[in-house]
Design goal:
By secondary structure, the chain is mostly helical. It has 3 helices and no strands. The protein has one domain.
């Protein structure tokens, strides 16, 4: 969601980069959801002793969820520092 918010801020004049910060929260929620669902899938694979399949997909989902959370954290830090710079710039 964060890259979509950035692209929208670049292409339109109605949305600024600060306005697109809502995508950070949405992206963080989706990342957490991916991690939770991957955890459930890994538990199901363990309970069925691997007969249900999907261990690789669960692993990939977890990695992508963590990557999404890291991207959202980085975007939140960047927005926070932008706010500090705007506040103290004058």
């Amino acid at each position: 969601m964060v890259p979509i918010g950035i692209a929208l801020a670049r292409e339109t004049e109605q949305v600024t980069l600060v306005n697109s910060s809502g995508s950070i929260a949405i992206g963080a929620l989706l990342g957490l959801g991916a991690i939770v669902l991957a955890r459930r899938a890994q538990d199901r694979v363990r309970m069925t002793l691997g007969r249900s399949g999907g261990a690789g997909a669960a692993r990939v989902g977890r990695v992508l969820g963590i990557a999404g959370l890291l991207l959202c954290g980085t975007a939140a830090l960047a927005l926070g520092f932008y706010g500090l710079l705007a506040l103290f710039a004058g």
